[in-house]
Amino acid sequence: MFDINLFALFGQLLVGLINGSFYALLSLGLAIIFGLLKIINFAQGALYMLGAFIAFLALKYMGINYWAALIIVPVCVGLVGILMERFLIRPIANEDHLYSLLLTFGLALIIQGAFTHMFGSSGLSYAIPEELKGGNRLPFMYLPNYRAWIIIASVAVCFGTWYMIEKTKLGAYLRAGTENPQLMQAFGINVPLIVTLTFGFGVALAGFAGVMAAPVYSVSPDMGSNILIVVFAIVVIGGMGSIGGAILTGLGMGVVEGLTKYFYPEASTTVIFLVMVIVLLLKPAGLFGKEA
Amino acid sequence: MKTFNKSLTAALVSGVIAATAATSVMAESDGKVKLGILADMGGVYADICGRGCVTAAEMAIEDFGGKALGQPIELVTADSQLKPDIASSIARQWVEADGVDAIGGLVSSAVSGAVSKVNLNAKKLTLISGSASNTFTTKSCNPFNVHWTYNVVALANGTVKPMVQAGKKKWFFITADYSFGHALEGVASKVINENGGEVVGTIRAPLGTTDFSSYVLQAQASGADVVALANAGNDTVNALKTATEFGLTEMMDVAGLLVFTQNAQAMDPAVAGGMRLTTGFYWDMDDKARDWSQRFEERHGSIPSMIHAGVYSATTHYLNAVEASGTEDAAVVIKKMKATKPEDFFSRNAELRADGRMVHDMLSVEIKKSEERKDKNDIYKVISVIPGNEAFSPMLPQCNFS
């Protein structure tokens, strides 16, 4: 009996890790936007939804397949983000953070409302690409190929992003430019451009996650709002603005949620917030955040 | 964060006030029939009873001639936002100040429950078309409740019973963790046990769960014959999608206990094809249904759900009763409604029982596979007709309001 349970547990751990990959992608985008730009982007969930919808529409009306969508959609969503930053967020950049929070929250509601109006609330279906259909029977579970791909792709993108920001010269400019804009501008660096591009990149990650999600979840207007609050909690747990923290916490919380789903499913949507409360009480800056 | 919370609260409150205020226009006038349709205009159930429920009521009023008791019939509509407190404040405004005689539409059992309480106090009719719980004609029955279209008992009897009788004895439930899911699971479990089956496991998944893979793995390990999805909308779609992806559908049957045409359309035929389900109506079931559904589609842009058809049918039956009894007094009208058999494209072999339950023939249908479909609206194959008295449970003596 015991070994069967152990097998089941392995399955849950793996499934948790897969969900954690989604959380990692989304919280990474948020962490970049918050950590570097100090903008609380409540529209991240809506942009994730937008990514999934663009992938659906591109396939249906232009025959753009999944693999092309993985590249094209993040670019499109990133462009939307760039326009948002340039024309909506920048004018209020010097106001209290609350303003950008409310602005992006309002935008999220508008985008979601518009999509409900256009496509209804029932959702649309997007097939798993032919190359990733099927799966492998592991000793403890059946692992669909697409789920394995989710882990690989997310971890690669997350690691790449972390490396770029923390280890390259470009990342150094970025961090310096947002830390001390006046000084960097004096060195001749175009800081506003860096800010816009960073915002675009953070948002593009949401678009990428949207494409990844389209084949496995129902593509529906409320898919973003369902996941957004959880992702915010993850960013808080990881430490506001910590890039590596967001990734590790995302993966970790996926596992915690997966285990909860096994032992006490009723609490599975609550457990992350419970962890958040505990972390905030014990370490207010978050697990990986720097103490202010 | 405190200021944020305050401003958010302020925004929510003003939203509620605006929503309520928008619905209050006219003062009461006697001898005039005024109907309210409360629906979900922008939430998760907007497709199954949102604008479409309003359109269905409009069509019913137009087909009736637009006038009752010699005066034009008025229609007011509002968005319940699926929130019981908002629904009851709108209902109160309608029946107490605006002279609304009956409230229809009503998706989500919690919303219907709230409205039903207000209407009982005001002695006005509650014409429920969208909700699934059977509580309105059992535990919380009252003389002014009318429950049209379907309920959890009919779904369980229609879908579960034949499967258990065909030898699928072991059942595993993935249930939406709120009142509707619990009610559906409870009723279905009873049907399973009564027919010699057993429930080998139950998972209560929170409403709006995105990822069902963990539950699917547990279902797989349970050794059940059938995995029953006691949930609705996107939860059902996501659960089924995941079940297929993880190979569950090759090992055991999956039964969606509540699937609307809009959900069936949203599912990949490769995933959903072959699944049996129970519905109160299918647009393509015969000429009468097709006729009406075509008119509905022209106005609304998509085919009707059973709830849309139910709203039309309930509204028509109500207006007929008003005209026949010569008054809009709810106590008189409800007697007339119960004394007359509803007969239209939706109601077949139907009667409105003394407890307010509208009993009619239900359909057992199968979702078509891709190769069987002519176009995007061609989704179901009708397998059999389930007579009303087999689908719905008998009336409780304490709910006999004859």
Q: Output the structural class of chain A.
A: mainly alpha
What Rg of chain B do the Cα atoms give?
Answer: 21 Å
Number of helices of chain A: 11
- Number of beta strands of chain B: 16
Estimated helix fraction of chain A: over 70%
Question: Strand portion of chain A, in percent?
Answer: under 5%
Q: Can you give the mean pLDDT of chain B?
A: 89
Biggest interface, chains and residues, is: A-B, 44 and 46 residues
Query: What is the second-level CATH architecture of chain A?
Result: Orthogonal Bundle
Structural class of chain B: alpha/beta
Largest sheet of chain A: 2 strands, antiparallel
Q: Extract low-pLDDT stretches of chain B.
A: 1-5, 12-29
CATH top level of the largest domain in chain B? Alpha Beta
CATH topology of the largest domain in chain B: Rossmann fold
Mean pLDDT of chain A: 88
Protein name (chain A): Probable transmembrane ABC transporter protein
Pfam families (chain A): BPD_transp_2 (PF02653)
Family (chain A): Belongs to the binding-protein-dependent transport system permease family. LivHM subfamily.
Membrane topology (chain A): Multi-pass membrane protein
Explain what the structure shows.
- The complex is a heterodimer of chains A (292) and B (402).
- With 292 residues, chain A is mainly α.
- Chain A has a single domain, classed as ABC transporter involved in vitamin B12 uptake, BtuC, CATH 1.10.3470.
- Helix content of chain A is 73%, strand content 2%.
- Chain A is built from 11 helices and 2 strands, in the order H-H-H-H-E-E-H-H-H-H-H-H-H.
- In chain A, strands 1-2 form a two-stranded antiparallel ribbon.
- In chain A, helix 2 crosses helix 3 and helix 2 crosses helix 8.
- With 402 residues, chain B is an alpha/beta fold.
- Chain B has helices at 2-23, 46-49, 51-64, 84-97, 109-122, 152-165, 179-194, 213-221, 233-245, 248-251, 261-266, 269-272, 287-300, 306-325, 330-339, 388-391; strands at residues 34-39, 67-68, 71-72, 74-79, 102-105, 125-128, 145-147, 170-176, 198-205, 226-230, 253-256, 276-279, 351-352, 358-359, 362-367, 380-386.
- In chain B, the strands form 5 sheets. A 5-stranded parallel β-sheet of chain B has the order 4-1-5-6-7, with helices on both faces. A 4-stranded parallel β-sheet of chain B has the order 9-8-10-11, with helices on both faces.
- In chain B, strand 13 (351-352) and strand 14 form a beta hairpin.
- In chain B, helix 6 packs parallel to helix 7 (179-194).
- The longest helix of chain B is centred in the N-terminal third of the chain and has 22 residues, at 2-23.
- Residues 1-5 and 12-29 of chain B have low confidence and may be disordered.
- The interface between A and B is large, with 44 and 46 residues.
